[in-house]
Amino acid sequence: MRNEPRPKSHNSTGGTLKAFQRRGEVIKPAELIEIRGGEKITLAARRIYNQLLSNAFGPDMASEGREFRIPFSELRGNHTSNDRVTEAILSLMQTVVRVRMSDGSTRNVHLLGPTDVEKFGPGVATMLTYELHPKLLPILRDSQIFARLEMQILHGFGTKYGMALYEIIAKRIGMKHVFYNDFEPEELRDYLGVPHGKLVPFAALRRKAIEPAVAEVNALAPFSCRIDVVEKQGRKVAKLRLFWWIKTVDEQKSQWEGQKENQGGLFDAEFSSLLCEFDQS
């Protein structure tokens, strides 16, 4: 896979759908990362949606009426039941999110269109056929900025907050000379998917959502991050600053050694070989 083209991770001169998606990777349009109104989307639903996007990716992804197929076995992960997959699919079909368009306008759109389930034998679902919602197609067609997400890393997250933060940074990690981004607390709360009415005090938001998300990203991703309070209005937090940076080789080596027993598959096999060379030197 190393000899295949590796375009910039943050943009594409020909548009997102003309980028090259490697095996085990999700190319996700930036407009679908920082969404609002997705607080009811579970961790499983977020992971499955990324799989559906990866499976559908290509020049025809934004073609109206285009159907895509994927086996349920690929969506179940380590689970043997289809119940969680079915629940996630229904949630994605019913959820309306607010997406910021490239021109600055806002569009309310369903994340997923119609679906059909093929069965082999009584009650045994084997294949999902799905369409992306028609209102989503212009976003996919016109998107110029995207994130490259590693599917194996996505499977390592135990919280939806961690996965959301990983996507937020992955959208920006290829940008030159940009190493931080400011967010209002309510803005970041929405992007992480914190339910309305939950974790209202900032101390609770930081302890239950922000800190666990930062910890997961730092444990799993090839980059590290931190989130600082940079502005207050009286006692109220008014602005947060998200910093990110690429891990050094030594940090990646330490990360791999710490995770290899449980999640060794999250890290590149060639990097594993490189570690062996380090150990022998």
TrEMBL record:
Where is each Initiator Rep protein WH1 domain found? 26-169
Record-linked Gene3D superfamilies: Winged helix-like DNA-binding domain superfamily/Winged helix DNA-binding domain
Cleaved signal peptide residues: none
InterPro entries the UniProt entry points to: Initiator_Rep_WH1, WH-like_DNA-bd_sf, WH_DNA-bd_sf
Phylogenetic classification of the source organism? Bacteria, Pseudomonadati, Pseudomonadota, Alphaproteobacteria, Rhodobacterales
Q: What is this protein called?
A: Replication initiation protein
By sequence similarity, the record places it as follows: Belongs to the initiator RepB protein family.
